[in-house]
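Team,

Forwarding the record for the chain on the shared tracking sheet. I've put the sequence and predicted structure together so nobody has to dig through attachments.
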Amino acid sequence: MALLSRSNADFEPLERHYKTGLLVQSAGIEVPQTCGENNDGVHEVAPVSGNWRQALAFGAAFLKSRRDLKRRTARELLDRRPESLALPTKSVLPREVAARINGTIAQAALIFGTFDRCLPKALALSRLVLAHGYQPTIVFGVTGRPFSAHCWTRVGNVLLAESESRIRNYTPILAT
């Protein structure tokens, strides 16, 4: 079974990796399943097969965000996000779209490795969500003992590329 059509030259390197076994095609989950609610009513959505081109773009955006955070403050980067330009976006994210976005992030992790820094991940994810026409929210949370901070991205009450069990430990202090 061919992963990609031969007519699309952009995907030929991925096709080679698929044939050598470095990449595997996943059947994914046909129907996104929620994992329940936490006290904020945020839902986690299971990933389905995403888009490889968007996965590569997400990985590049993650690396760019990491580099930008060395040169600018987080506030400057948050203020520069495209949604600050008042682009028309939707605030309710269908579960099917969320599942594809989560699948895209999972595919990007196969190429780029783990996205272990939450702020560059949230910034890159907000770009991906905006590209789909939805309004993302980056939420910052803290825990007290031991002190820890974390941020994650959501659209409305749909959590993206993050474990609900992980964010449950954090108290949200800022949503932007």
